[in-house]
Specification:
Blueprint: E1 2-7, E2 14-19, E3 22-28, H1 29-33, H2 43-52, E4 62-65, H3 78-82, H4 90-98, E5 109-116, E6 119-126, H5 128-138, E7 144-150, E8 157-165, E9 168-176, H6 181-191, H7 200-206, H8 218-222, E10 225-227, E11 233-235, H9 253-259, H10 271-299, E12 303-307, H11 314-317, H12 320-323, E13 328-330, H13 340-352, H14 372-381, E14 387-388, H15 392-401, E15 406-409, E16 423-427, H16 434-443, E17 452-456, H17 460-463, E18 476-479, E19 497-503, H18 509-522, E20 526-531, H19 543-550, E21 557-560, E22 563-566
Parallel strand pairs: 1-4, 4-6, 7-12, 12-13, 15-21, 17-19
Antiparallel strand pairs: 1-2, 2-3, 5-6, 7-8, 8-9, 10-11, 14-22, 15-16, 16-20, 17-20, 18-19, 21-22
Helix pairs in contact: 5-13, 6-10, 15-18
Length: 575
């Protein structure tokens, strides 16, 4: 059975194709169109996934979409029903009229069957948070687990509490607009002069720069959220716009009166901005812990799975088992909206159709790959001088140890917003100047942004204070042990932490081999790993993408498969 999952018109549209419960292919549209966070219909992604499964759209059994427009029909909508703009609006107007006769209606999902050229196109429009829950639970290794999803908004929900068991997800309760923790976080992203729904990473990084001790903004921000019974919360909408995403700001004049004037994008960041970020992060964490406390008490589960854009917050993710009563937590490589293409397909397959054969996620390599012949063609087309090397991992490790910045392009593209060793920029973590070098000459981004350590899994606990064995998707931040920080200064954030990725030899043998060679040379089983892209662009997908980035930034060496391109004029050892 083949199911095509689609995330459309939400942040980072994407497509996934599963066959008998296994992910065959998945890719965000942005990787193929080079338009970051695109919300256009992911037609190129559909074509890629169909090609990987060697089939046509007519061969797909079901299509699952991660948004259910029928939920907006719960109340009679005269726009649909009385003033149709074209005949296709019958698709909305007829059920909208009939819904007037139904009391206490709750639209679980919308199913559409279209007979087309003697083939049936069967489309399910599923609830957004159900898809997040499916991404969280069905990709996890747990047979039974509590589920929490938190984001800006779905159709009208902002959080969902659930319980997953085998092939079923039971919804326990929801929180609805305007009470949104995701939009709460985005409000302060906007307040601090960054782009909401995009630059939350930057705000999270600012937290470590705040002075410790009494924070003058904490109580003020805390008092704008009321923690209610049964894990619920309420935003005080005097401070936050009731319908978020309003122009020009998410926040109201009352918030300005409460904590001061917002920062303009061009203004220098000051300690008060760091403190606002830290206070908001603390309130966010306390609110999630409030929800988790109720969920654990209600379900009596030791296992937890989470999803939604709020759980891209790796700083909090690393604290969950330490600060809650859950002992084990799973977070997929794609808890954000892009992962809802996978979630939609899995929710349909397991929960609605009742199929078994769950396949826990062990890696995120579902996107396009290019063999050596395709790479060679791209290099020849660009008119570049290159060499093919037999032991590319040993060569790359040696160059990294000598101070070179390496663009590393291998295998299938990662699915998710983090590069995990196939579309990465790699560097030496021992060099304290490397972070500034990459930020200034490669990523062209703010100097305060940290970089992640990729560590051989068997040495992870030697360097990090971890409460789990594996962090395969760079999804959690943990403290770096004090006696190790001087060895890897390039990946130590201001608060002594690092957002690590544990690298497993079975999951990514080539990346593992590179780090192992670096370990033999330096005695350090870690490399700096950041995504292979320029600031404001999607992670590279094709060899041509990688070549373009290589020649528009300060990278020293480009490794594509077994091929190497060097900038001879800049192959000098960094200070």
């Amino acid at each position: 059975m083949k199911i095509l999952g689609i995330n459309h018109d939400m942040y980072i549209t994407s497509v996934a194709l599963i066959e008998d419960g296994k992910i065959i292919a998945a890719v965000p549209e942005e990787r193929l169109t080079r338009d970051k966070h695109t919300r256009v219909f992911p037609l190129k992604a559909v074509e890629y996934c169909l090609a990987q499964a060697n089939c046509k759209i007519e061969d797909i059994d079901y299509i699952a979409n991660s948004y259910n427009p029928a939920i907006h029909m719960e109340k009679f909508n005269p726009i649909f029903s009385q003033s149709r703009r074209n005949r296709a609006d019958y698709l909305y107007s007829i059920p909208d009229q009939l819904f007037r006769l139904i009391k206490n209606k709750e639209v679980k999902y919308l199913k559409q069957e279209i007979e087309l050229n003697n083939n049936q196109l069967c489309i399910y429009y599923l609830d957004h948070h159900d898809c997040h829950a499916a991404n969280a639970f069905f990709l996890s290794p747990f047979k039974k687990a509590a589920i929490l999803t938190v984001d800006g908004r779905g159709e009208k929900d902002t959080c969902s509490f659930g319980l997953g068991q085998e092939n079923n997800i039971r919804n326990l309760k929801r929180i609805t607009l305007p009470h949104s923790l995701g939009s709460f976080y985005s409000t302060y992203t906007s307040f601090l002069g960054f782009r909401p729904d995009s630059d939350e990473w930057k705000v999270m990084a600012l937290v470590a720069l705040a002075q410790t001790g009494n924070n003058p903004f904490y109580e003020k921000i805390k008092n704008t959220i009321e923690l209610c019974e049964q894990g619920e919360f309420r935003l005080d909408i005097r401070y936050y716009k009731e319908h978020f995403h309003e122009i020009p700001n998410y926040f109201t004049d009352e918030l300005v009166k409460l904590i001061g004037y917002p920062r303009k994008k061009s203004e220098v960041l000051e300690q008060k901005h760091y403190q606002i970020a830290a206070a908001m992060q603390q309130v966010t964490e306390e609110t999630i812990l409030h929800m988790l406390a109720w969920l654990q008490e209600e379900t009596q589960m030791e296992n937890l799975t989470v999803a939604g854009g709020v759980f891209m917050n790796s700083v909090f993710n690393g604290k969950i088992t330490r600060l809650s009563n859950f002992k084990n937590v799973f977070i997929s490589s794609c808890p954000d909206d892009s992962g809802n293409s996978i979630g939609a397909a899995l929710y349909l397959y397991h929960h609605i159709l009742g199929k078994g054969n769950r396949c826990p996620q062990k890696h995120s390599y579902y996107g396009p790959e290019f063999d050596n012949s395709e790479i060679e063609k791209a290099l020849d087309k660009a008119g570049l001088s290159y060499k093919k090397r037999d032991n590319i991992e040993e060569y790359s490790a040696k160059k990294i140890s000598e101070g070179c910045l390496v663009g590393w392009f291998q295998g299938k593209t990662e699915f998710g917003q983090r590069a995990l060793g196939n579309r990465s920029i790699l560097a030496d973590p021992r060099n304290p100047k490397i972070k500034d070098k990459i930020n200034a000459a490669v990523k062209y981004r703010e100097a305060f942004r940290p970089f992640a350590p990729a560590v051989l899994d068997k040495y992870a606990r030697d360097y990090f204070d971890m409460d789990c064995d594996d962090v395969p998707f760079m999804e959690k931040v943990f403290p770096i042990k004090e006696d190790k920080r001087h060895l890897i200064p390039a990946v130590v954030h201001n608060d002594g932490s690092g957002r690590l990725q544990t690298v497993n030899i079975e999951i990514n043998p080539r990346f593992y081999s590179l780090i192992e060679h670096f370990f033999r040379i330096t005695g350090v089983p870690i490399v700096v790993n950041t995504s292979f892209n320029l600031n404001g662009e999607p992670i590279v997908c094709s060899p041509t993408d990688a070549i373009k980035v290589f020649y528009t930034c300060g990278l020293n060496i480009l490794v594509l498969g077994d091929y190497v391109v060097e900038k001879e004029s800049v192959l000098t050892k960094l200070p």
